Amino acid sequence: MTIHAEQVGRDLHITVEGIEAPFVIRPLPGRAGLQATDTYLAGSFGSVDPREMAAVMIMVVDGAVYNEDLDRWFPVPVEQQHTYSRIGLELSQSEAESVIMPAFFWQTTLGISGVQAYISGGEGIAGTLKAAGALTQRLALFVPKTSPNSGSGAPTSTASTPTTSSPQSGGNPVKRPQDRKPKKPKPHKA
Prior knowledge:
The chain has about 190 residues and is an alpha+beta fold. The protein has one domain. It has helices at about 30-45, 50-60, 80-90, 95-105, 110-120, 125-140, and strands at about 5-10, 10-15, 25, 65, 70-75. The chain has a three-stranded antiparallel sheet. Strand 4 and strand 5 form a beta hairpin. Helix 2 packs across helix 4 (about 95-105), helix 4 packs parallel to helix 6 and helix 5 runs antiparallel to helix 6 (about 125-140).
């Protein structure tokens, strides 16, 4: 199956082979997109309830409403979920994935380049992996294991944590293992 995606004004139009009318995805507000990104990335590590992940996928195709009391974004009411409903009525699950995942990447900081990465990656799982890789690189999601700040070497999320330091900020250079001279053996005492 093949999809075609293009930005038309502020919207993303996704056309599925064999379906005449495109699926029109309107942009989320930036903070709703950030919440969707954070939820998706947490879900990639299995730490999100599947219902929360489903809510994110509805938000990325149909929009979101802000709940001030909870300080969270939620999908628009069911009666306003026209695109999500259309996807469920007109497309197979595989085809639906090829509309929903580009819509998700569209709503992230990647925008159209995330959509293009998904399509050029071959759509489906392969496309998702390629676009997700681009997203994690963009967000500087993983601190390299050789970083002196990483401690355990475990992946550390910095997607929504601002930072004031940068590698170009000067200071003492970090000695990498290849820069160190081997230690001289200590003489044995008799």
